[in-house]
Specification:
The chain is an alpha/beta fold and 431 residues long. Helix content is 43%, strand content 14%. It has helices spanning 16-20, 25-35, 54-64, 68-75, 84-98, 102-105, 117-129, 144-153, 169-181, 207-219, 280-293, 299-310, 314-340, 372-381, 413-430, and strands spanning 40-41, 112-115, 135-140, 156-163, 166-167, 188-194, 227-231, 257-262, 274-277, 347-348, 356-360, 383-384, 386-387, 403-407. A hairpin with a 7-residue loop joins strand 10 (347-348) and strand 11 (356-360). The longest helix is centred in the C-terminal third of the chain and has 27 residues, at 314-340.
């Protein structure tokens, strides 16, 4: 007699990390963009299609692939830490950005790890430093994809208040004092900062706070070292305003700050090259973890970036990108004045760089996915934004639900103006 066969199998045995990482907002936003092609997107944090370096990349590829032996080297596996030639070039690049010599900074190529964009580097740092239940202190608001990384590790993100100069140091001290009084200081492993033209607020950490946060992290490292993770993804996207040295440059012993940057914004996201600078005792742990994942990011992409630098093509391209985004930023700010200037209770940040304008509406307007504004904007006015609540850690009670991030990255100036007009109509309907 044949036994009955169960045709409905139970679900797979998902791990805790799978459950922690579920329901990412970025997936919903991308789905909305695909399903609503007629919507003007002020949400997408993508770079301008017209700014992508087609001719520069073609030049490098044609010359680099001309020699068959070199072409095979490009097409072969690389190393876990990444192409040594490019890492040596990045020592010079950082010296240029910091206006200090490599010797002054004690920076050598063996402290640099190349990754698949800076996002992979952020993920690797979290995996190496954070156990479930550990704490990362973040600005309020902060980069919501990194909040997803923390959730995926079972770590806790705790917000620190900000003002026009970035994360407030008095608020950071207050959180550390509170956590110590509650017996949780030992769970604090990381302070995360988007130091230049923050995603989403467009604000930068002021120069005096850059040295102060290093001093605070060192002083509170009582039983273990509290690390600072400086995300400088938008550093080279400066259009005006002051020039700041990195937080990393204030860490004179090179023990407390981890710096990560990327070529996704300044050159091309499709090539997928980012990098991080590490204290020496973190290089091997990061490379060990990275070896488990891919034992080396795209060797081909790293050769392209290296070739771009070799031929002097990088810095002129960055200047072109800055000019394009500067005009787009100005267009969005002009449109904000034109369409929102007479609406009571509406304000916005004037960013000196980056890709975003951070707008605050009257408290009564809920900008969330479940709020009436998002429904009105996407379905009736055909415009999309990113709800501000996504950028806050903690419970709903700790989040601001009347803010939104607006991006001028992918739209033309005409698209920016039309998108802002439509969005203002949706806001007026709520009021």
């Amino acid at each position: 007699m044949t036994a009955d066969i169960n045709t409905e199998l139970p679900p797979p045995p998902f791990s805790h990390r799978r459950r922690w990482a579920s329901e990412q907002a970025i997936s919903f936003l991308m789905q909305q963009a695909v399903e609503n092609r007629d919507v003007v997107s002020l949400a997408a944090g993508l770079v301008d299609q017209a700014s992508l370096p087609v001719s520069e990349t073609r030049t490098v590829l044609e010359e680099e692939l001309r020699d068959a032996d070199h072409a095979r080297e490009m097409l072969q596996y690389g190393t876990t830490a990444g192409l040594e030639k490019l890492r040596e070039t990045l020592v010079e690049h950082l010296s240029r950005l910091e206006q200090r010599s490599a010797m002054e900074m004690d920076l050598t190529a063996d402290r640099i790890v190349l990754t698949t964009g800076s996002q992979q580097f952020l993920s690797l740092v979290g995996e190496v430093l954070l156990d479930p239940g550990d704490i990362c202190l973040v600005a309020a608001p902060t980069y919501f994809v990194f909040l997803g990384n923390l959730n995926g590790l079972g770590a806790r993100a705790i917000s620190v208040a900000t003002d026009a100069d970035g994360m407030r140091m008095d608020a950071l001290e207050a959180q550390l004092e509170r956590l110590e009084s509650e017996g949780e200081l030992e769970r604090v492993k990381l302070i995360y900062l988007v130091s230049y033209y923050s995603n989403p607020s467009g604000l930068s950490l002021s120069e005096d706070r850059r040295s102060e946060v290093v001093e605070i992290a060192r002083r509170w490292s009582k039983r273990h070292r509290i690390m600072i993770l400086e995300d400088a993804a938008y550093r080279e996207m400066r259009y005006d305003g002051p020039v700041f040295p990195s937080v990393w440059s204030h860490d004179v012993p090179n023990e407390s700050v981890i710096l990560t940057q990327t070529f996704s914004k300044s050159f091309s996201p499709g090539i997928r090259v980012g990098y991080g600078i590490l204290p020496r005792d973190l290089v091997d742990p990061i490379c060990d973890r990275k070896g488990n994942e891919d034992f080396g990011s795209s060797n081909f992409g790293q050769h392209i970036i290296s070739g771009i630098f070799d031929r002097g093509l990088y810095y002129p391209h960055v200047e072109q990108v800055r000019a394009s985004y500067r005009s787009k930023r100005d267009c969005m700010l002009d449109a904000a004045d034109k369409y929102f200037g007479d609406i009571p209770g509406v304000s916005w940040v004037h960013p000196h760089g980056g890709l975003y304008v951070w707008m605050t509406l009257p408290d009564s307007v809920d900008t969330g996915f479940d709020g009436s504004l998002f429904d009105r904007a996407t379905k009736h006015e055909k415009v999309m934004y990113v709800p501000g609540e996504l950028f806050y850690a903690g419970s709903t009670a700790e989040k601001f639900t009347h803010q939104m991030r607006l991006s001028y990255g992918v739209q033309t100036p005409e698209g920016i103006d039309e998108g802002m007009r439509r969005l203002s109509q949706a806001v007026r309907a709520m009021l």
